[in-house]
Specification:
Distance between the termini: 35 Å
CATH architecture of the largest domain: Alpha-Beta Complex
Structural class: alpha+beta
Number of domains: 2
Number of strands: 16
Number of helices: 11
Helix content: 25-40%
Strand content: 15-25%
CATH class of the largest domain: Alpha Beta
Order of helices and strands: HEHEEHEHEHEHHHEEEEHHHEEEEEE
Shape: globular
Radius of gyration: 23 Å
CATH superfamily of the largest domain: Creatinase/methionine aminopeptidase superfamily
Length: 416
């Protein structure tokens, strides 16, 4: 086979060096801002107002901490023909003026925020924030055009409408921009995956009878943060009878001999994320476990073999089992088990592939997309299950797998 078994995407070190080409962050910023501008120009919108941290980072190349993800305290406006204007949390705006010279100093401003409603409505802060946003739109000459919004709290949405703005869905425009990755983005995604492989090596060594799921989660978190992860978003750890149905979480369950266990590591390196399942049997494996794993692997390989530019997502989804085939009542219950999703600054970007949405609404695959493919197969013993995930770069020559921890066969840890 071609690219699939070839050299993985580059995974350079984190240091800046003069002796080889590595990630060029200014080139990365210019690419992302250009993609956002082009997507905006293709739309009916005059400007984008973004509260989604992934969109803010894509447009402005700024980030101040994962704690802001659910606070809606940061926002940016990208208007046609204008430079981005960023409102950030308090003194972070001052920090950007000193250390982010790609943002004009006058465009780095302290945000007006209610802290998710903690500052009461009687203070009227959403009205103040929207008045400043409208001023920026007027200066850019787009105040009479529709405004694209990705996410917002209700008071902000009401204030935008009260100001007479025609608010439209801006998230689709940003997802259009983000779906094709540059070589710098692919290097960051590959590096993030390489970090997970280091964590999985330690998991394989630690995974033995008596260890608890939460201890594996702690090990992975510690390892990744020491490696330089900027956000371990989640680590799913599922073992024994918890494998059916898949709970998508972790517990304090103690793992026993001969049990199956699978893990999903979701973390970010310089913002770029992984979604990376691996499945193990502890000490020894059973025929039922091996059979389930073989079927999950076959479904995975069938999907990977289809990946190339011009293929549509329904073709991949049709190769996966139905919900009923894996013991669930509907594709809604099975959503996320036989699954594909884009990876980038967010865990779920385009394309999103499943039997629930792709059969009737297929999307064409293009070179430059990066996405994860996931399969799940319950075992006939009624409690074990296999779970596999691979991350794929779409090239003109076909799929390039960048998740390299062994997964062709069921991995038995600390065998007896």
């Amino acid at each position: 086979m071609s690219v699939r078994n070839g050299v993985a995407a580059p995974s350079p070190g984190v240091m800046g060096v003069d002796f080889e080409e590595r990630v060029d962050f200014r080139r990365l910023h210019e690419y992302r801002l250009r993609r956002a501008r082009e997507a905006l120009d293709r739309s009916e919108l005059g400007a984008l107002l973004c509260f989604d941290l992934n969109n803010i980072r894509y447009i402005t190349s700024t980030a101040i901490g994962e704690w802001t993800r659910d606070k809606l305290t940061r926002y940016t406006v990208l208007a046609r023909g204008a430079e981005p204007v960023l409102w950030d949390f308090g003194s972070a705006a001052v920090h950007h003026r000193l250390h982010a010279p790609w943002i004009r100093p006058e465009n780095s401003r302290p945000a007006v925020t209610t802290m998710r409603g903690a500052v009461g409505p009687e203070v009227g802060l959403p009205k103040v924030a929207v008045a400043e946003i409208v001023d920026v739109l007027r200066e850019a000459g787009v105040a009479d055009m529709p405004l694209g919004l990705d996410i917002a709290d209700v008071p902000t949405m009401l204030a935008l409408q009260a100001a007479g703005l025609d608010v439209r869905d801006g998230q689709q425009v940003m997802l259009d921009a983000r779906q094709l990755k540059s070589p710098d983005e692919i290097m960051l995604l590959s590096r993030a995956a390489a970090m997970v492989e280091g964590a999985y090596q330690l998991v394989a060594e630690a995974l033995k009878p008596g260890v608890r799921e939460n201890e594996i989660v702690a090990l992975v978190n510690d390892t990744l943060y020491r490696m330089g992860s900027d956000d371990v978003e989640s680590v799913n750890a599922v073992s024994g009878e918890r494998c059916i149905p898949h709970p998508h979480n972790f517990s304090d369950r103690m793992i026993r001999p001969g049990e199956q266990a699978f893990f999903d590591v979701m973390h970010a390196f310089n913002g770029y994320r992984t979604c990376y399942y691996r499945c193990f049997s502890v000490g020894y494996s059973t025929p039922a476990q091996r059979d389930a794993y073989q079927r999950a692997r076959e479904w995975m390989d069938t999907a990977i073999d289809l990946v190339k530019p011009g293929v549509t997502t329904d073709q991949i989804a049709r190769g996966w089992p139905t919900a009923e085939d894996i013991g669930l009542a509907s594709e809604r219950e099975a959503f996320g088990l036989q699954f594909g999703h884009g990876l980038g600054l967010a865990l779920h970007e385009r394309p999103l592939i499943s039997r629930l949405n792709s059969l009737e609404h297929p999307m064409e695959i293009h070179a430059g997309m990066v996405f994860a493919l996931e399969t799940y197969c319950p075992a006939t013993d009624g409690h074990s299950a296999a779970r596999i995930e691979e991350e794929i770069v779409v090239t003109e020559d076909g799929p390039q797998v960048i998740t390299l921890f062994p997964a062709q066969e069921l991995f038995v840890t600390n065998p007896y």
